[in-house]
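Hi C.,

You asked whether I'd gotten around to modeling the 539-residue construct. I have! Everything is below, sequence then structure, no commentary in between.
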Amino acid sequence: MAGVGASAVFTQQPTDLVVVAGQPVTLACSIPGYHGMVLWLRDGMALGVNRDLSGYPRYDIVGDHSKGEYHLLIQRTEMQDDAFFECQAIQAAIRTRPARLTVLVPPEDPVIVGAPVVSLRAGDPLNLTCHADNAKPAASIIWIRNGQVLNGAMYSKTLLRDGRRESTVSTLYLSASNIETGQRITCRASNKAAPNGKDAVVTIDIQHLPLVNLSVEPQPILEGNLVKFHCSAKANPPVIHYRWAKGGSIIREVSGDTYEVIVDHSFFTEPVSCEVTNALGSTNISRNVDVYFGPRMAAEPQSLQVDQGSDAIFNCAWTGNPSLTIVWMKRGSGVVLSNENILMLKAVRQEDAGKYVCRAVVPRVGAGEKEVSLTVNGPPTISSTQTQQVLYGEKGQIKCFIRSTPPPDRIAWSWKETVLESGTSGRYTVETVSTEEGVISTLTMSNIVPADFQTIYNCTAWNSFGSDTEIIRLKEQGTPTPFVPLVASCSLRLAVIIGVAVGAFLALIVLMGTLGAFCCARFQRSKYRTPLCNRSVRF
């Protein structure tokens, strides 16, 4: 319709309001003479057109439509209604000013931790904690005793996830001299939504067991010196008797409130206790003595024999005072492996075997150490030169060195179709010698023949964990080139002999010719000529 909003103006606009959650509230909007669409917005989002707010069951548009009244009624306010609202006349292109609706939320009933009765022993201070949750604004908490507000409480608040409500926690501290059994203390939480406040009450119950203090003098002290223990107690009813103990064992020769003794290292780990008894029960307090003493072994490490690839774990526990330092090292190495009681060697190899030392040092007091051994079980490992040199026609030896824990069950040499573990077979002899480092197996050949240079020799060792094999070849000593087959070798040797003979013969001819020419040239100047100069030298 043309001109539906040409002169439309708002005669009523929403105003800022404060409401307690759960109560109804109405936001005004009047635009007389306007017949176009009216739109309500909450925080910039449309709620519905004209009187259709079907998506919001708590919202209604009320007022006389003929008078242009489009008031927004919120029946039961909730936290999501805490927002800005505005009314818009779409065709008139006008809107009201934004109105802030503030929703207040009263705190939930306050809760005192430990209520309704908080018990404590005589002489102990009292700490009371009260929390009031889900309030907007945050609740204020006061503590009341006998009609008087108690001061000095600590106060903190936490903003909840909705960003609006808050939880409040208040902690009240009362010294032992400021409390009595049977007293009732009230926690009162209030805010603008609950101005009269909500209360929680707790009753104090004090238990009168003996209060005991155990002193030790002097401290610190070197072992071997005199120390005095004094057990002082306050009790109601009065103390009946004292009982002393050390490390849980009763000291029967002492019955009063004082105990004197010459201390040793055990007083550092075995506390001295004083138990004080009255008609209501007993109170026991214990103290260790700060005794200075050098390292003492608490758990002795044990030597280990483990399989290769497994973890080796040594445990070496020392006690000492002042605090001691523990160092694990492998004997012969300066590398620190651990500064803890436990030394873990993961996935050990055979080269990890050896002696390990656990050393403890108490500064300015003393030191101690303990050595253990690590033996690593695994398959044999063979180390040998893969190409070994021998002299043709002489006796030759091949050696393989075997490391094995446990020792090898069997060592065998094999070549072609022959297997020899020990003793002599034809030209071959096998000897095995054990050393501190391992086992040396030697294959001896009485006379090296050309075929030996073509043979592949296998040295194999076995134990219960597996085996290892080394392949060894022979090379003629002093020969840089690889060995050639037998037939070719014989032909080559013959060719070398013939070549050497022919070369020597030709060299002789050249030498004789040179001598002849020299003689002729020398005696040509002489009136005498030798017969040699007048002849041809022939062979």
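If it helps when you're writing up: The chain has two helices and 44 strands.

Thanks,
B.
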